[in-house]
Each structure stands twice: as structure tokens, then as C-alpha cells.
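Q: what does this look like with S-adenosyl-L-homocysteine bound?
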Amino acid sequence: MDKEFLRLIADLYRPLDRLGPGSKATSRQALALCGLPETDKLAVADIGCGTGSSALFLASELDAQVTAIDFLEPFIQALEKRAATAGLADRIEGITGDMTALPVQPESLDLIWSEGAIYNIGFATGIDYWQQFLKPGGVIAVSELTWRSATRPKAINDYWQTAYPEVDVMSAKLAVLEQAGLSPLGAFFLPHDCWMEEYFRPLKDRLPAFLADHPDNETAQAIADEQLAEIKLYEQYGRYFGYGFYIAQKMV
Ligand code: SAH
């Protein structure tokens, strides 16, 4: 990806707490399904952590050391600032790195967490690659674009088939997990407020200041237009697609 584009993306999102659909309530729901012990020093990785909402959540909820990985350094800097403010700096290590080359030992993690990020390398590729870093019995919790049912209007079907050909129904995503040697512990759809209130509203509020900071910048304008188009698409067709949250355990 081009450097100027990534610089602008980082600038747009850096002040935001959440860079994709989700909420504390649904993170809590997913964590409950993980069934992790409460009193072990757990080894946790948050992959594609963005500015750190899940890493902060996991560090405060679990007795854990959280490695938070993202390839945009400004996000890791924002995360480290938030961790320090929350008094969680000693439990979170931010690493600027790529999710296709994790700086982690094989079979070393109790929990892999990733919200709204695995699509960057594709669900099947990501699951296959990441599961080797789980200890036997370790758990993965990951959210992924998913059709809400077997049929939908052609317009939205064609849109996502082009933009993200791996889009599929929940049963197909569960089959991917099973084929990678993982046993599903649960799956659920994020409710609409995880999109509208938690993600899109702060993003929409941020756009005027972002554009004012980059006057006459065509790339910035194109990024803002794309975000608005995505919001519109969800408003119009969000009853047909959403984010599934998948929780699965590596077979012992
Ligand atoms: N989990 C965060 C961020 C989701 S947005 C949240 O829910 O708020 C997706 C994140 O994946 C972005 O922060 C982006 O920088 C990161 N990302 C994209 N491709 C990546 C890659 N190849 N390696 C590491 N991080 C990547």
C-alpha cells in the first residue's frame, strides 16, 4: 500500500478508540465463551490491535500479559499512551509488526484475540497460520465479516463478493475453524449498535476535522468518501451481513 495513503489512514483513525465494529459488552461475551482460568498468568496476543480497545480490555479483565501487534506504528503509540493512562502499561507490550510474521514462539499462547482485522490476510489463511502459536487447549477469539443468512439481494451480494470474496455464512466460517484443528466454543453476531454507535458515529464525527487538516488533498477526500459510502451501505443492507464473533479451542 502506498505510504501517503497509510499515513492518512493512521491520521484519521489514531484518535479513535475503536477501528471496527465491536463493544465492551460483546468482548465480554466472547471472553466468557473462552472459558479461560481466572488465576493463571495467561499469554495473550491481540492481532491487528489498532489503538488498543481489546488489548486494554483483556489486560484489565484477565491475569495476563498481552502482546498487541499492529503494522501501523501510530496506532501502537496511541495504544501505549492509553495503556499508561489506564495503569496497564506493565501488562501490555505494543509491537509494530505484521500479522503474517508474528513475533511469537509456536505453541506459546493461551489466547489469540483479533477484532475486525483478520480480513486483511483472509480468514482461512489467518486461522491456519495463527493456530500454530496456540498452546494445545489454547483459544482463539476472532471477528469476521459474515452473511446473516443464506440469501440476500444481488446488489449487496455482488458488492461483498468483489470486495471480500471470502465472505460467507456462519456455518461455513465454523467449518474453516474445524478444518484447522480447532473446536468451536461458540459464535454470535455483533448487534447493530456495535456498528452504528461504537464504530460509525465516532468515525463520522471525526471526518470534518480530518478533512480540515488535509485541505485540497484528493486522497484524504477519497478516504472520507469511502468511509461515508461504507456507513451508507451498512445502513441500507446491514440486515444481510454483519460481524460474526468466533471462539474456538485448539484440540489437545
Ligand atoms: N482490532 C482493532 C483494529 C481493527 S482495524 C479494533 O477493533 O479497534 C484493523 C487493524 O489491522 C488496523 O489497525 C490495521 O493497521 C491492522 N492491520 C492491517 N493489516 C495488517 C497486517 N498485515 N499486520 C498487522 N496489522 C495489520
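The longest strand covers residues 134-147. The two ends are 39 Å apart (CA to CA).
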